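[job 0412] stage=complex_fold ligand=S-adenosylmethionine status=START
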Amino acid sequence: MTPTLVDPFQRAIRYLRVSVTDRCDFRCVYCMSENMTFLPKKDLLTLEELDRLCSAFVNLGVEKLRITGGEPLVRRDIMTFFRSMSRHLESGALKELTVTTNGSQLAKYAQDLASAGVRRINVSLDTLDEQKFADITRWGRLPQVLKGIDAAQEAGLRVKINTVALKGFNEDELFSLTEWCASRDLDLTFIEVMPMGDIGNEDRLGQYWALSDLRARLAERYTVRDTDERSGGPARYVRLEETGQKIGFITPLTHNFCESCNRVRITCTGEIYTCLGQEGHSDLRAPLRASEDPAHIEDAIRRAIALKPKGHDFDYSRQDVQGKMSRHMSHTGG
Ligand code: SAM
Ligand code: SF4
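[job 0412] stage=complex_fold status=DONE, emitting structure tokens
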């Protein structure tokens, strides 16, 4: 029987998110500052180290692996890593291998991802307006991402669109985004903006659009039915009766989802964060580099999981942003 990683609060750890790079070809205003200093390459886990680390987690009972970043698909040779992970899908130990991407490289890689056993992907897209897209991503181009989404669907990948809800930015696109997703058979999840990292001059409280409000606006046009579907993560789902569409809401700031948290995150430098909203972390790179023996890294993983905290402290309810994290989302992986 596969061993199980269980934390001090009796939550089994089944889901691992791994950031494979802190670099990105976009500079989304809520995620990065325009002038980011990236980590020296030697600090990053090599693809071989990533393989050993992820394989150790799979060996300890992790069933779902999400590759993220930064932009995971800009990491050189990343397809080698995906192909290598597909052996755990074939053995049945891993149930799902997936990726969160900005879509810019999908036209190039969608087919390879599908061949490696990826079935579903998340693509981040906050607006369907070309100019607004250029503004919010600073460096991105909408047509390239739309082509990527086409390529993904042609390759047979199920695509979920992740949209960060931003006050005064995409409020007016709520229905057009929803309808576009329905017409393209794309799943859609809205994310509440989180206080992560120093992003320069952007006013984070000004960006905050509560999803309770977004949902109320959806209900003005559609019949919104709650579902009890859960992914073990922060997302909650509703169904729009008129379109049959499933819509997700990720509201880390207004709801507490920690009690059912089954996930941990690894940064591109091999730090494990057992909670997205806490600073506490352990280093897995040193044990990885100290020994090739899988038992060595598995012990380090078990020790890290024993420190998983009960929950996070994000709170916008006071006027100041409480529980703000100093690290960037691109470091931990969103
Ligand atoms: N580059 C890839 C992408 O954009 O999908 C993967 C990494 S990105 C950090 C993962 C997700 O985090 C994206 O959906 C992005 O919109 C979201 N994100 C980044 N910064 C955020 C923030 N401050 N609050 C909420 N979501 C954020
Ligand atoms: Fe890059 Fe994704 Fe962050 Fe945008 S959200 S800057 S695409 S890592």
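The mean pLDDT is 89.
[job 0412] exit 0
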